[in-house]
Amino acid sequence: MLNVATGGGAKGLDLPSDWKERIERFIGAPMRFGYGMSESLGGAMGCEAGNYHPPVSSILFILDLETGDPLPREGTQTGRHAFLDLVVDSYWGGFVTGAKVTVTWDHCECGRRGP
After folding, report:
1. Label partner for 49 (CA 20 to 30 A): which of 55, 73, 108, 114?
2. How many other C-beta atoms can be found within 10 angstroms of the C-beta atom of residue 113?
3. Which stretch of DSSP H or E encloses residue 34?
4. Residue 64 in contact with residue 78, Cβ under 8 Å?
5. Of 45, 76, 72, 44, which is closest to residue 58 (Cα–Cα)?
6. Cα torsion for 29, 30, 35, 40, to the nearest 10°?
7. What would the pLDDT profile of 86-108 be if each residue is shown by its tens digit?
8. 24: helix, coil or strand?
9. DSSP single-letter state for residue 70
10. How far is it, in rounded angstroms, from Cα 87 to Cα 57?
């Protein structure tokens, strides 16, 4: 199967409503989405259920939006995204983002267990 990796997103552009189908038809393969950032060596791949799964090399934290305290690692939590990247060895791998995310810690509809 063909695998194509790109990045950057639409950067605010208005794309045609059928853009995804047009690209899939052109490359002859389905598109899978992911989420990543330059501060992390691993990216979160999108699954069939439309959720993102963080790489196993990243320890995920969700922080309270008001206090910054870590929220419980159970159920569904919404807060500020933070992580510890275990792959890097040339700098401190902890990072607190400005992104507000919702994480379900139990399992995903696609069958994967974990966040």
Report:
1. 73
2. 8
3. strand 34-35
4. no
5. 44
6. -30
7. 887 777 778 888 889 999 998 89
8. helix
9. B
10. 6
